[in-house]
Amino acid sequence: MARTVWDSTVGKKTVMAVSGVIMLMYLVAHVIGNLKIFFGPEEFNHYGHWLRTVGEPFMHYEWTLWLIRVVLAGAVVAHAVCAYQLSRRDIKARPSKYVHRKPQASYATRTMRWGGIILGLFIVWHVLDLTTGTVHSGGFQAGHPYQNVVDTFSTWYGNVIYIVAMLALGLHIRHGFWSAAQTLGVGSRARDRALKTIADVLALLLTAGFIAVPVGVMTGVVS
Ligand code: HEM
């Protein structure tokens, strides 16, 4: 049964929709947390510390954080694997016998594929930059995310990488939210306009909220 669902196109689309919603919920929480940077180093670093102690004393140090990381990593992998498999299916199913030019995927489909690749690469960069410090520009200081964020956005390439990724994120969410609603059966004639508006507003708020941080550092509001 599980095998049949997994093998079906609808099954894969459902996995993509559910994992997408999980990541979206994380991003809403993440952007709210990031905006705390405008309240100064003490509040932002305190928030970073809280992420590690949340759930105590029931949970041990970092247990909740690791639980979130595992769920999130699972969602990213499931989303990427299904996207890859659906793309392959789509390419194979294209009629090519009688046409001379290769039929192209739609603009939305291409945007989603390229956007997904950009975001996948971004997440790897981002974790190596601000969580492990491996590719961080200044001297990475564990426990001092405020200073680490300021360092990142004090380099031109840090700003370029993040801003390009955030624009890709906005486009990805705008179309992804809409597709997920259709797959999960939330869409209907009456609701489609409202769903499109929600997708637009959500994408705009998340993009603007995330981009506010590098802009804050570049303009000296955050320093
Ligand atoms: C300008 C935009 C962003 C800023 C300033 C930012 C900032 C940060 C910071 C400071 C951390 C480390 C937190 C800590 O260790 O205390 C972090 C972790 C993380 N961020 Fe972002 N972030 C941004 C955008 C994003 C986006 C768009 C995504 C996903 C697409 C994302 C996904 C993650 C993930 C997965 C982690 C790792 C969490 C962990 O395992 O500890 N971030 N971010």
UniProtKB/TrEMBL annotation:
Domain of life: Bacteria
SUPFAM superfamilies recorded: Fumarate reductase respiratory complex transmembrane subunits
InterPro entries: Cytochrome_b-558 (IPR011138), SQR/QFR_C/D (IPR034804)
Keyword Transmembrane helix in record: yes
GO CC annotation, single: membrane
Gene3D superfamilies (UniProt xref): Fumarate reductase/succinate dehydrogenase, transmembrane subunit
Keyword field: Membrane, Transmembrane, Transmembrane helix
Record field: transmembrane: 21-39, 66-86, 107-128, 156-177, 198-222
Name assigned to this protein: Succinate dehydrogenase
Organism encoding this protein: Streptomyces cellostaticus
Lineage start: Bacteria, Bacillati, Actinomycetota, Actinomycetes, Kitasatosporales
